[in-house]
Amino acid sequence: MSGYGGDDSGHVSASVKGVGAPRADARRNRERILRAARELVHEPGELRLNAVAKACGIGQGTLYRHFPTREDLLAEVYRREVDDLVAAAPDLLVARPPLEALAAWFDRVAAYARVKRDVFAAVEAATWRDLAAHSLGPIGEAVEVLLAAGRSDGSIRVDAEARDVIVLISWLSRLDDTELDARGPRLLSIIVDGLHVNRP
To answer: Any idea where the HTH tetR-type domain is (predicted)?
Structure first.
């Protein structure tokens, strides 16, 4: 009986190692693919999956197992950018006053705008419309978290709505890199100043 138990225990242990290792490796590969695609989508010309695989140092078969099509990959690049942007709002509020947190979040918005512009230019219209529709809610909720904190401490005007901010920052993704670099920080600073409650 003890022999059976030992064999079974050894078998389970080997199975866990066999299952766990590929999963961790797959997660790492997925992250590498997304990072490479995020960088390469910004390059001139059409994003090619073989270029992404080469940049990651993985085989094309591995890439296709994670992302069967180019649009699947680009859609996930955009979703990840949205997730990171949304998650940043409460994190920033932990360490900073609301108005400073909002300004810091806007710095991340500029990077998000670049990814949005490049991804939406590279995918079919139906895909980017779907992505935009599903990201609007979470981004709006993140803005509201920041605004609500500022309303509570009196630093942000009480009539400011998340939709107001979304409309204003949406123009960033329509700017090319030169204009985004030149005007982006100033435009976002103007929005922050407009949201600030001016104290006597």
So the answer is: 27-85
* Identity of the residue numbered 178: T
Q: Can you say how many angstroms the Cα of residue 150 is from the centroid of all Cα atoms in its chain? A: 24
User: Residue 94 contacts by C-beta under 8 Å, 6 or more apart in sequence?
Assistant: none
In three-state secondary structure terms, 160 is coil
Taking the domains of the chain in order of start, what are their residue ranges?
1-68, 69-200
Question: The domain 69-200 is classified under which CATH number: 1.20.1310.10, 1.20.1250.20, 3.40.50.300, 1.10.357.10?
Answer: 1.10.357.10
DSSP-based three-state secondary structure for 196? strand
- Which residue(s) pair with 196 in the sheet? 156
Contact 185, 106 (CB under 8 A): no
Question: In sequence order, which residues have a C-beta less than 8 Å from that of residue 14 and are 6 or more positions away?
Answer: none
User: Which residue in this structure is represented by tokens 């910004």?
Assistant: 42
pLDDT for the residue numbered 24: 84
